[in-house]
């Protein structure tokens, strides 16, 4: 349970540390429970969307939902995406990319990356019926984190001095890998209940994480925490986009 608490403490603003002491070493294996944190953040975001949609049009409801998620997570993944865009957009060598990502200031590429991310996210969710949007948000949050977790299995940590937060993730054992996959896939059952064809959308984040892993290996020989955060958001966005494409194709 403390490993789950470690994952929730790291990925959300839920103050579990006030009620239980979490040893530092538990954070190293918290990657196994990334999809479960997606259950929490995804379900809360979906709930906010559904509640807001009862009194607002879809566009402001989506903005309220994404604002709520940002407050719940402390914009952790968004910070990673901005650093990722700055580093890979402005750096030409491994050392330069890592140096840029380590810098706490946001640059042009980071700003543009966040703008495009939010534009895509909001426009995609607005285009969906409420029930599909709610199910898609919940399912994509969990499955995106399951996909992003594979970075730890397939790439080494890129900084020789270690992570800024002194947390180094351990590669998963077989049973841990199965936990990640199963917990990431279970929320897609909601999509299957609405339309089984929507579950095809899981192949989009799988493709995205494969491309990201190849790209990160080529550019910096591994991953950083910012890479993980960016991967979570890009995988999530790709799955929502796939849900929207499948839905729109069916109604044509």
Summarize, please.
The chain has 252 residues and is mostly helical. The chain is built from twelve helices and no strands.
Number of strands: 0
Q: What is the overall number of helices?
A: 12
Shape: globular
SSE class: mainly alpha
* Rg over C-alpha atoms, rounded to the nearest angstrom: 18 Å
Q: Portion of residues in helices?
A: over 70%
Element-by-element helix/strand order: HHHHHHHHHHHH
Instruction: List low-confidence stretches.
Output: none
How big a fraction of the residues is strand? Answer: under 5%
Largest sheet: none
Overall average pLDDT? 89
- The span between the termini is 47 Å
Describe the structure.
- The protein is mostly helical and 252 residues long.
- Helix content is 70%, strand content 0%.
- It is built from twelve helices and no strands.
- It has helices at 2-11, 34-53, 58-73, 76-90, 94-102, 108-126, 130-148, 150-154, 174-185, 188-194, 203-220, 225-251.
- The termini are far apart.
Task: Draw up the topology in text.
Blueprint: H1 2-11, H2 34-53, H3 58-73, H4 76-90, H5 94-102, H6 108-126, H7 130-148, H8 150-154, H9 174-185, H10 188-194, H11 203-220, H12 225-251
Helix pairs in contact: 1-2, 2-3, 2-7, 2-9, 3-6, 4-5, 4-6, 4-12, 6-12, 7-9, 7-10, 7-12, 11-12
């Amino acid at each position: 349970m403390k490993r789950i608490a470690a994952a929730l403490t790291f990925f959300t603003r839920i103050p579990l540390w006030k009620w239980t002491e979490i040893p530092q070493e538990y954070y190293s294996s918290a990657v196994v429970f990334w999809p479960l944190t997606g259950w929490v953040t995804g379900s809360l975001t979906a709930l906010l969307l559904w509640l807001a949609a009862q009194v607002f049009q879809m566009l402001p409801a989506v903005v309220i939902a994404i604002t709520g998620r940002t407050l719940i997570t402390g914009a952790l993944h968004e910070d990673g995406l901005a650093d990722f865009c700055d580093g890979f957009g402005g750096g030409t060598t491994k050392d330069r990319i890592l140096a840029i990502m380590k810098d706490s200031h946001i640059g042009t590429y980071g700003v543009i990356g966040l703008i495009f991310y939010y534009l895509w996210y909001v426009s995609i969710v607005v285009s969906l019926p409420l029930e599909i949007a709610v199910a898609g948000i919940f399912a994509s949050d969990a499955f995106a984190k399951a996909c992003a977790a594979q970075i730890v299995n397939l790439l080494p940590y890129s900084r020789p001095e270690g992570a800024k937060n002194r947390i180094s993730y351990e590669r998963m054992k077989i049973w841990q890998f199965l936990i990640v996959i199963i917990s990431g896939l279970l929320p897609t059952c909601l999509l299957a209940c609405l339309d089984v064809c929507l579950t095809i959308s899981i192949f989009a984040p799988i493709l995205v994480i494969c491309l990201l892993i190849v790209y990160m290996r080529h550019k910096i020989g591994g991953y950083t925490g910012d890479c993980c955060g960016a991967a979570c958001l890009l995988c999530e966005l790709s799955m929502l986009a796939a849900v929207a494409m499948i839905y729109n194709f069916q109604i044509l």
